[in-house]
Amino acid sequence: MNSFSKKLFIIFINIIGIFIIFITVDIVFAYKIYLKEVSFSKQNIMKHKNYKDFIKKVDIDGKFIYRPRLITFKYVYNKHLKNFPPKYVPSTPASAGNKKKSILIFGDSFAEGFFLNQNQKLNYFLSELTGRPTYNFAISGTGPSQMLYETRLNSLYDIIDVIPEYAIYVYIPCHILRIFEANYGILDSYVHYDVKTLKNGEKILKEGNYIFSWFCRFRIVQNFLNNYVNKKIMIPENQDKNFDLLKLYFTESRKELQKRYPNIKFIIVKYPSYSYGAQHDSSNNIFISNRWKELEDLGFIVYDLNEKVNVNLKDDEYTLADQHPNGKAWEIVSKTIVSDLHL
Q1: Helix, strand, coil percentages, rounded to 5, for the chain
Q2: How far apart are CA 86 and CA 122, in angstroms?
Q3: Cβ atoms within 10 Å of 233's Cβ, excluding its own
Q4: Where are the domains of the chain?
């Protein structure tokens, strides 16, 4: 082996050594974060009056698995469609001469109906109350980025076989935070969008690169970027700027839907939920901001459940132990929406 080959070999061994050390440190760090998250979840779940019923069905301890993330949003989206067919047809469909247009639903685990049976979910109640087919495209752990991604997929429209009259997005306070978590690759399976300004001054969202997503495969990097988002972006000084971005996700998503369904009506259902920490204080401030009126001026129907329902949806009576809505909550919400908006 000549001197050059020896140098290459030494460099290779050093790189392998550094990588092993980094992975070892990352595993220890990831495990500590896992313990902290489990402890936090347990503390909150145990406060709920019905927590015993919940923990019978759900393993709240979970299982620690160290696995650098190698999945893509498209993989998760397609897998979700296979496991959870989005279309629901009411048990008493409209007669042939009185067919009603459908309803599309977007959002996260709230809208998806996490931990609920089919007859406890939002799309079930909306279908049964209106006689309309519903398509539930909500996916747990996502937000506005997921909605925009889906509305730009041709395959989404292949699934919709009944023309929709309404699109409903269920918005909870942390969704503004999830936009930035998507852009920085902090959460799994997100698409990153950059704001681009056209020559006429119009702003659009264009799919960006995935450099942060690659580095966020490791928990140390993920945690660093998460702290950056919380301390530098989700701050009061950026509240208006952040709302402008949120508004752009809604207008861009509606624009995609209107290319196929020009007369579709877009409803944003603001669902209150508990959140913690300084970044969530900023999220809550956006949730109660008077700037939602700007979306109403653009033709959106903004439906704030804090104002519309006569119960506190955050009470134990209307939540699962992990704070997701239960069937009773969705029944009340659905009846109120259908009545108020004449769906």
Answers
A1: 55, 10, 35
A2: 12
A3: 19
A4: 1-64, 67-341
Structure tokens at 273: 């939920």
Structure tokens at 322: 């992990």
Helical residues (DSSP H) of 46-112, grouped into ranges: 51-57, 73-83, 109-112
CB atoms within 10 A of CB 52: 10
Q: Read off the DSSP letter of residue 184.
A: T
95: burial class by Cβ within 10 Å (0-12, 13-18, 19+)?
A: exposed
Tens-digit pLDDT profile for residues 265-301: 999 999 998 765 555 677 888 998 999 999 999 999 9
Cβ proximity of 64 and 25 under 8 Å? no
What sign has the CA pseudo-torsion 280, 311, 51, 323? negative
Beta strands in the chain (DSSP E): 87-88, 102-106, 134-136, 164-171, 193-197, 203-207, 265-270, 301-304
User: Which residues are registered as beta bridge partners of 134?
Assistant: 88, 103
- Strands across the sheet containing 102-106: 87-88, 134-136, 102-106, 164-171, 265-270, 301-304
Under CATH, to which class is 67-341 assigned? alpha beta
Q: CA-to-CA distance for 92 and 216, rounded, in angstroms?
A: 48
Report mean pLDDT in 10-residue bins for the chain, 343 residues. Answer: 77 89 86 81 80 74 66 54 71 63 94 90 94 92 90 89 96 91 72 87 84 74 85 89 96 97 97 68 86 97 95 93 92 96 94
For 105-117, write each residue's pLDDT tens digit. 999 999 999 889 9
Tell me the CA end-to-end span of the chain in Å, nearest whole number: 79
pTM of the model: 0.89
